[in-house]
Amino acid sequence: MPEGHTLHRIGRELTDAFAGTAPAVTSPQGRFAESAAILDGRPFERAWAHGKLLFVEIGGQTVHIHLGLIGKLAVHATDGAEPAVQGAVRLRLLNERYVADLRGPMVCTLVTPVEVDALVARQGPDPLQPSAEPTRAWERIHRSGKSIAELMMDQSVIAGVGNIYRCEVLWRQRVNPAYAGRRIKRGTVEAMWHDLVRLMHVGVHTGRIITVEEDVADAERDIAQGALKPAYDRPNYVYQRDGQPCPRCGARIRTRVVAGRNLFWCGGCQRRT
Ligand SMILES: [Zn+2]
Known about the structure:
The chain is an alpha+beta fold. It has 2 domains: 4-121, MutM-like, N-terminal (N-terminal domain of MutM-like DNA repair proteins); 135-266, Helicase, Ruva Protein, domain 3 (Orthogonal Bundle), CATH 1.10.8. Helices cover 32% and strands 21% of the residues. It has 8 helices and 10 strands. It has helices spanning 4-18, 33-39, 113-121, 135-142, 148-151, 163-172, 186-206, 213-224, and strands at residues 24-26, 44-50, 53-58, 61-66, 72-77, 89-94, 98-103, 107-111, 253-258, 261-266. It has a 4-stranded antiparallel β-sheet. The longest helix has 21 residues, at 186-206. The chain is globular. Bound molecules: zinc ion.
């Protein structure tokens, strides 16, 4: 499943490709055809994300998209001609220079402004929103008897975090993933939050989940200089490394399903509350 940085990146790509134009909007597969007809030829305003929710504003209307497990939204430059439709395309946007195809989403539907507000209100704070801060996340974690590993996958606690960021941030901050939320100190939640802000910011700019500190620092410097390199390919610390030694303490990395996904952690050095 895409993590939040992917949705923010798609929002930027759509806005860059279509803002200020009036794209043709179609549903080649047919399941979004009635709504597409309402949007067709209207001015594209912007696309934006909150966590894993994507909103596309066209002609005063808003489309809510959730990619779910298998959905994909790809934006490509064209040579001016409309590319042939490949597979089941739920939604296609086309202007003179770009095409965007949405395939296999869990949700693709027109929503009212009230529904947009309600959808966003059910989400926790999103580390990629510039004004977001972790107080609401802390309040929910602090009141919960669920494990911090489970809470980190709950989009109403922190929006946009998926399994890779969960595993890697818990390891980076030395947090024991099995501890109940109410045992975790406020300073620890704030440290995890600021780590997520850093890592997910790098993720939006590079299009990749980069979690190893040397690569994160390199990518941050390159982003600031506007010169990304096709590197940053050190493996993760613990994600999908079960059975291997922990890069920090040498203990064996473990795995177990928590909140429906394989959690990876080190039983040796992740003790922090
Ligand atoms: Zn360790």
